[in-house]
Specification:
Layout lengths: L10 E9 L5 E8 L6 E7 L11 E2 L1 H8 L6 H14 L4 E2 L1 H5 L8 E2 L1 H8 L3 H17 L4 E2 L1 H10 L4 H6 L1
Parallel strand pairs: 4-5, 6-7
Antiparallel strand pairs: 1-2, 2-3
The structure holds zinc ion.
Zinc ion binds next to loops.
Length: 166
């Protein structure tokens, strides 16, 4: 728990999923003191919240994905995912948690697509992975193919390594 300089608990206001310079996923945890209004943000390695999250929270990315689900589906998904997260003794619903419901269904990567991802510069790799998995999930597919990569690349990867690869 974070305590503000004024002596009150700080409340978790939001969590952003980001990539650090090596491409590892990080969480940027925003907290606010509701007494004096002080706001702070802390970067931690993903899933290592160090007690900085004071209640069950959805990351901005996971919330965004939930918002785009059909209205009949969203409440069911929310309930199921939150149950799973609580059962694991965790407090954060991440984009990954949302992609892997209890059914155990995971996004699968074609070996060639996985190999190409390794050529993506480290600083954008984690976000590229998320963007690809997000696109696949939006289309109701659970497999990342080179074809999908090519398509998303045009929109998302402006990076030289990927261009040389093509
Ligand atoms: Zn305060």
């Amino acid at each position: 728990m974070l305590t503000c300089g004024c002596g009150r608990w700080m409340h978790t206001e939001g969590i952003e999923e980001r990539a650090d310079e090596d491409g590892a996923l990080q969480w940027f945890i925003r907290s606010e003191c509701r007494g004096c209004g002080l706001k702070v943000g802390v970067d931690v390695p993903a899933w290592r919240t160090h007690g900085l999250v004071d209640r069950l929270m959805w990351t901005d990315d996971a919330l965004h994905r939930l918002d785009r689900m059909p209205p009949y589906l969203a409440p069911l998904v929310r309930q199921e995912v939150e149950q799973d997260v609580r059962a694991r003794g965790e407090r954060v619903v991440s984009y990954d948690a949302l992609l892997c419901p209890r059914t155990g269904e995971r996004i699968e990567w074609e070996p060639e697509a996985e190999r190409r991802l390794e050529n993506v510069p480290a600083p954008v790799r984690a976000m590229a992975r998320i963007e690809l998995e997000r696109t696949a999930a939006d289309r109701g597919t659970s497999r990342i193919t080179v074809a999908l990569m090519e398509e998303v690349k045009a929109k998302y990867f402006g990076m030289s390594n990927v261009k040389r690869e093509a």
